[in-house]
């Protein structure tokens, strides 16, 4: 089991657009396993590769007992919205209501390069949207209304973990691939 440190808000990798996966090899399978182990240990509903310092379009999820992953996701969202609490492993202890699409159809690939479709509503839809946002350099507080966002930023400044030095890419066992230059 490889439980790795999760990058915290303020780490530049969380604001970069992740690169598409082009090689489906053992390194990718190791990354998916590390993402899964770290997410389950945290515990969290999802974890994206940038949260481990790897700038690749990969995330894992565990919602309602369903464990999975998605590589190079492409989302189609429903028009119906939901509003509900959301948190993030990169912002420990913080939760805010966030608007999201009620349903999602996510097309992508497995770690073996096989096409896959993940379809869901409510919590699964929220999770898939949240993790895909991470792959685009978006953090859920970016989606809050201005008043809530200001409250979130204030809470971040006051958080016990605020100001911790971000990990360097060399600190990750995945430092040889997915590095954003």
UniProtKB/TrEMBL annotation:
Residues that bind Fe cation: 88, 130, 134
Domain of life: Bacteria
UniProt xrefs under Pfam families: Pep_deformylase
EC code: 3.5.1.88
Coiled coil regions in record: none
GO molecular function terms listed in the Swiss-Prot or TrEMBL record: peptide deformylase activity
Catalytic center residues: 131
Gene3D superfamilies documented for this protein: Peptide deformylase
Cofactor: Fe(2+)
Keyword line: Hydrolase, Iron, Metal-binding, Protein biosynthesis
UniProt-listed InterPro entries: Peptide_deformylase, Peptide_deformylase_sf
Cofactor note: Binds 1 Fe(2+) ion.
Catalytic activity: N-terminal N-formyl-L-methionyl-[peptide] + H2O = N-terminal L-methionyl-[peptide] + formate
Function description: Removes the formyl group from the N-terminal Met of newly synthesized proteins. Requires at least a dipeptide for an efficient rate of reaction. N-terminal L-methionine is a prerequisite for activity but the enzyme has broad specificity at other positions.
Family per record: Belongs to the polypeptide deformylase family.
Protein name: Peptide deformylase
